[in-house]
């Protein structure tokens, strides 16, 4: 057997599980194991925060008339700094759907057609092509008075990803657009925003709940977000928060 024949024989004998180039079919060299920043940190299986400042003792449920549905970019699910999941920790009726451009979630489509709900897409009114769809918080009050459940649909991802979700999801095109108007500036410290006016997903939900009349739920979620924000930031510098902060104490008191 020649050297060339031997090489061909060995290539054909490569395990079928080896990754291959989709064009040539040739086996690709093994890639190094991916190690994300913070991948060596011991995390709580319940809250996914570093065990040093676990969030679990401060999880408190709250009730709200309005619901929050998250349409989440796939990459956000892998980010422990994602704040959308905090909403589900507090509001048990929260729905989370993964966004794929060519494969809309069937459950989401069914819920959008359910007459019990009055869904609103939360997005800025900064472009002229959908001004006819823009509504104010008065529409939320009208939905309540008609016996329907207001739903805030949050596009969970980076600002660029959120714009793509908004523009590339035909099933959202007929829904009213509710821009969030607030003087609140972000307190989020785990990612650097382009502007202090750019709120993270949990902060948007807090403001919507507060302005829509679900003030108790907004207060609990605000405290929970603050504890998450402080705990994660402290853990990055290997600092244990002790004694508990005021927000921690309020949430702990709600659990007793």
UniProtKB/TrEMBL annotation:
Pfam families: DTW (PF03942). Residues 1-32 are annotated as: Disordered. GO terms for molecular function: tRNA-uridine aminocarboxypropyltransferase activity. This is tRNA-uridine aminocarboxypropyltransferase. Its EC number is 2.5.1.25. Residues 40-237 form the DTW domain. It comes from the Bacteria. Keywords: S-adenosyl-L-methionine, Transferase, tRNA processing. One of its GO terms (biological process) is tRNA processing.
């Amino acid at each position: 057997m020649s050297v060339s024949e031997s090489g061909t024989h060995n290539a054909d004998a490569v395990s079928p599980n080896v990754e291959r180039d989709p064009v040539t079919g040739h086996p690709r060299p093994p890639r190094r194991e991916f190690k994300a920043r913070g991948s060596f940190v011991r995390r709580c299986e319940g809250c996914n925060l570093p065990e040093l400042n676990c969030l679990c003792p401060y999880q408190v449920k709250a009730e709200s008339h309005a619901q929050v549905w998250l349409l989440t970019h796939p990459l956000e699910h892998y980010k422990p700094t994602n704040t959308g999941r905090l909403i589900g920790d507090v509001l048990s009726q929260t729905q989370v759907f993964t966004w794929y451009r060519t494969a809309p979630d069937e459950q989401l489509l069914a819920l959008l057609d359910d007459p019990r709900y009055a869904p609103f897409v939360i997005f800025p009114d900064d472009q002229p092509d959908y001004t006819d769809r823009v509504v104010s918080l008065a529409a939320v009050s009208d939905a309540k008075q008609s016996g329907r459940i207001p739903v805030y649909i949050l596009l969970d991802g980076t600002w660029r990803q959120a714009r793509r979700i908004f523009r590339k999801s035909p099933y959202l095109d007929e829904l009213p657009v509710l821009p969030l108007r607030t003087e609140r500036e972000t307190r989020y410290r785990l990612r650097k925003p382009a502007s202090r006016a750019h709120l993270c997903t949990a902060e948007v939900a807090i403001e919507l709940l507060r302005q829509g009349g679900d003030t108790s739920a907004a207060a609990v979620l605000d405290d929970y977000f603050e504890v998450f924000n402080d705990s994660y930031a402290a853990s990055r510098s290997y600092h244990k928060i002790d004694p508990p902060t005021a927000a921690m104490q309020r949430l702990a008191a709600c659990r007793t």
